[in-house]
Amino acid sequence: MHAYTHHIGDFNTATLHLSRLERSIYRDALEFYYVNECGLDASDFGLLARRLRCDTPEEKAALQFVLDEFFDLDIESAQYVQPRCERELADYRAAVAASGAVKANVNKRQQRHREERTQLFAELRKAGQVLPWDTKVSELRAAVAKLKAQQDLSRTSHAPVTANHSPFPIPLNQEIPPNPPAGGADAGQAAPIDDQKAGRQPAVKVQLMENPAAVVAQLMACFPEQRRTQVQLVGRKVVELVEGGVVTAEQLLTAAKAQSALLNKDDGKACPRVMRWLREERWLDAAVTVTGGVTGGVTGVTSVTGVDANWRSGRAGVEAMGIHLGLGPWDERRERLFSAYEQRVVSEFDQRMRPAALMGV
Fold this sequence. Notes:
This protein is mostly helical. The protein folds into four domains: 8-81; 88-155; 185-285, no CATH class; 288-358, no CATH class. Helix content is 54%, strand content 2%. Strand 2 (72-74) and strand 3 (79-81) form a beta hairpin. The longest helix is centred in the N-terminal third of the chain and has 44 residues, at 83-126. Residues 170-201 are annotated as: Disordered.
C-alpha cells in the first residue's frame, strides 16, 4: 500500500496528550503498518524498536506508551493491530480487486475489438478493397455490409434465367408443371383432358421472373438505407409473390415508389423493414382510399359509409376508420408503431360499431 487517507483533524484530536516525540513515533508506526499491510510485530520488542528507529531508552519508552495507547495486542498472530488501520487495508484490498476485474474486462474488449478489425480487413482485402490502417471499425463494418449486399444481389443475376432455373428457391406450396409427355406438342395437348377425366386439377403454370435482382434493387431503393435488410429473404419473397400470382413486379414497384416519401419521412423512423412490408402486403396501402367524406352510419358488419369495406387491409383504410371513430389520424409522436394505433382502432370499432351493425341499427 503506497498511500492512505490521513485525516488531519482526527489525528490532531487523538494525539493532543502526546509529546512531540511520542507523536512522531506514532506517525512512523502508522506508516510502517500501511506499508507492510499487516500489524506490527509483537514477538520481539527490540526488533520492532529498531525498525521504527527508536534507539535511546527515552525513545523506547515513548514507543511502548504509543503501543499501549493506540494498538491492541493480538496474541494468536503476535501482532499489534489497530481497527482503523484494518478498515483502511480492507477497503484498499477491495479496491485493488475491483480494479483488477475492470482491467481484465477492458483487456477482453480490446482483444475482441482487435480480432474484429483483423477479420474485417481480411474480408475486404479478399474482395480487393484496401482501406487505411486507421479506418474506424464502424466504417469497416459498413464497408463489409455493403460488400455482402452487393454479393447477394450479384448471385441473383450472374446467369440468364431459363425455364428450368430460378435465382431463388421455388416456394414449397407452388405447383410445378410437369414436363411435356412423349410424342411432341400434339400429345401434350391431350394432357389436360386426361387430368380432367382422372378428376385432377390441371397444374398451375409458373411465370418465372426475367430479372428478379433488378426488381429487388429498385424496391430497396424506395426504402431508407437502415431498412434494407435481409436481401436474400426479400429476393425469395418477391419471387414467391410474383411467380405465385399474388402481385406483379410492376405493382410492387409502383406502390413502393408512391409510398417512398412516407417511408423516408423523419429518416425512416416509422418505416418497416422491406421484408415486413412484403409479408404484410403493404403495397395495398396505396390502393386503399376513402371514397367520400366520412359521415358515419353503418352500412354493413365491417364497413362504414365513406370508408372502404376492406379498411383493415391497408394503412390508409385504418386511418380513415380511426378518423371516423374520433381517434384522429396516426400520430407517430404519440404512437411510434403503427401496429399500436391499428390495434386501438380495431378495438374501438369492435366496441362501438360492430354490436350496432349486428343488431341492424
